[in-house]
Amino acid sequence: MRLSTITLLILLSSKLVFSQAVTPFTCESFAYLFQNSPTDIIQVDLQTGNTTEVASNLFGEDVSAGYNRADNFIYLNGKKTGNLYKVDKNWNYTTYNLGINTGLYNADIDANGIMYMYKGNSTSIIRYDLNVDPPAQISSLTTTKTGIADYAFNPIDGFLYGVDSRGRVYQFNPATGARTLTTTVTDLDRQTYGAVYFDANGTLYLNGNSNGKIFTVSHSTLTTGSPSNAVFFSQATKSGTNDGARCVTAPLCKVGDTAPNLSSTSISNDCGETSVNLGTISADNTPDGTVLTWHSGTPPSNGNKLSDLNITSSGTYYATFYDAENDCYSASNTSFTVTIVAVPTIPTALSASPSSICEGGSSNLTGTCSLGTINWYQNNTSGTLVGTGSPLSVSPSSTTNYVATCKSTSPNCESSPSSAITITVNPKPTPPSITAGNTQICLGNSTKLTATGCSGTVTWSSGDTGASVTVSPGVTTDYTATCTNTTTSCVSTNSNTVTVTVVPSSGVTISIDKNTICAGETINLLMSNCTGIISWFEVGNPVPIGNTASLSQNPSSTTAYNALCDASQAAYCSSSSSNIDVIVNAVSSAPSISITGNSTICTGETTTLAATGCAGTVSWSNSQTGTSITVSPSVSPTTYTATCTVNGCTSPSSTGVDVTVNPIPDAPSGISPVNICSGDSSPLNGTCSGTSTLTWYESALALPPIILPLVQIQLRAVLVQIQIPLRLRLFQVLELLSPLTKTLFVLERQ
User: Fold this and answer.
1) For residues 686 and 699, what is the distance between their CA atoms, to the nearest angstrom?
2) 517: Cβ–Cβ under 8 A, 6 or more apart, which residues?
3) Which strand ranges, in their side-by-side order, compose the sheet holding 729-733?
4) What is the pLDDT of residues 185-211, one digit of tens each?
5) Are 159 and 110 a contacting pair, CB within 8 Å?
6) Helix (H, G, I), strand (E, B) or coil at 662
7) 729 near 688, Cβ under 8 Å?
8) Is 727 helix (H, G, I), strand (E, B) or coil?
9) Stretch 630-656: mean pLDDT, rounded?
10) 685 vs 671: CA distance, rounded Å
11) Strands, DSSP E only, in 504-558?
């Protein structure tokens, strides 16, 4: 039949399978605590209080729990989501989304597979039939509000029992929901009891949230109606959120909390044996009705129980007492160590590197053991034990054979010896004898070293090779040499030592007064601290240029100098300084100068001078600079010259040029008339001194000025205007009597 989309959605909403619960429990004696959110699952041995975490971080919420004896699965109700979880022995689970109310933190299941869920201080007990898939809700029961955190079915009378934090025991009728206060338990800690269990005898177990203590209340005291005592039974783990589940018909284990007291804590095989038998290990405290069993892990279980006690591999094992009647185990002993050591085999991959050495040298013996440590012997295993491990460095004094074995401990087993490997020892050659041509040299000089008595290759301590070498040490130095046999590559010990003493310079220094000059200038060279013969040189010329401490030179071009101080005493050596460079700059030619203005001027006037042919700075004799200058001399004639400066070097002066300066004549005298009336006319009269010529100008405003003829002209009075034309000097102005348009100026013409 093809299902519609709506039908599929209904089925998926009623049953969500995240994993599949398939392996039922076996109604074992353990109780289970479900703690925290997400849920951690703790296995509890009620008799011993021993706890073991068997699963963690499940469901994503905290849960209430019950054990279903009808199918041997544990069912959990999610307090946050209301989901129902069916959980198997391996902690796989099936999830049902049935729309169950949230917050139902009391749960247990009766012998018929009906789950009862209750929220403290509620008036309703929710019931679900777990015999169908998915589980189906059946009628709820009405009850009385009760402040309990968990309840469980009593296998003796079939009622649900829970205890509040004040020790009051409440009984719930699973048929009607009716609640009855049966007794008050004393000697009980004031805390929430979120996990309660029954055993097959009807004994109630209360697991406290705050301190993890487990108390018991016998079945006979649950219904007395009078206060009854709680008995501390064991100590488990504490948690803020607890709920519990247990197969109520499972009896408690006979073994209790007794761990085996073994006759040994470890065992190992002997040489030649490949296994050990754990059956040879005994315990001196076996409880009645139990047997000693061995396990590959802890806590002990049927799953990790060893069926064969003949152990062939090393490892850690655990012993426990097993109660076959109740299918339960005691606490394990501490770990028991099994060591299986096989007889080592002959080592492999044996080698000596190098296999041929020089006297006093060493070689590395290497090899591999599949088991144990490699031992090395000289000649055979009855010989001397040379050492252990790989590689092993050996230094035989003569050609030697070596054999190896592999040796283990616990048990102490050693393999047969290997075949021999040989290390050949070659003698060293005789060291050479060395001499030096000079054992005392001046700094910078050299000497020859010579070696004799070597038929191979001579190697010097300086790194040079050869029977003779030339050395030039910077400081006093010891020299030795060795001789290498070219066939065996063996090197002799060091030869005798030859010391070459280096005599340092006497601290001579040279200096110069200036490093840059102009052609034709002089420099002064100075040598200090020389007690011997002084020699000055131009670099590149071996001929000395002087032998005094102070030496003057006039280089014509850039030149480098150095000096040598050669002392006559044995304690002194020739010493030279670093070069001194002198830069010589050329002197340029004098510039060409000319007058670009008037060569003759009147006093107070100016003219212009110019210079050419200078690539640097032009300096004039009147202290001005530049290729063109303006001058106004007062003395006639005035001569001007110029120089050219390039790179700080100044040329000779140029040829001079002269500027003539003429004085201005005296003012004319006897000017008449001085005053005239408008409309009148009069001749103009005046007298000049010396050779000057009297000239009349019509107006100073006209450029050039208008010169009047020396005749009588008709004058008209005009407003006086003062303006001096170029190269004209105003001496007197006619005073006119009325404002007209003309003005006459009396001027002296140059």
Assistant:
1) 17
2) 523, 555, 582, 583, 584, 585
3) 707-708, 693-697, 745-749, 729-733
4) 888 888 888 899 998 888 899 988 888
5) no
6) strand
7) no
8) coil
9) 91
10) 5
11) 509-512, 516-518, 523-528, 533-538, 550-553
